[in-house]
Amino acid sequence: MKTKTIKRKETGNWALPGEPLTLDEFKEGIKEAEKGPFYTIDESKKILNEWRRPKNSR
Length: 58
Prior knowledge:
0% of the residues are buried. This protein has three helices and no strands. The chain has a domain at 23-52. It is elongated and about 45 Å long. The termini are far apart. The mean pLDDT is 80. The protein is 48% helix and 0% strand. By secondary structure, the chain is mostly helical.
């Protein structure tokens, strides 16, 4: 049975074991994350409360 190698760029998952992450890839990932989206505290609370509310009361 052959093992298929998955490249991180395709999956976007840095948590795969045995997959090295270069410093440049790490820096690029940080730059991408800094683009956002970012929420205010009030927006975050609203989103969390929506998520917590039971589905039948939405």
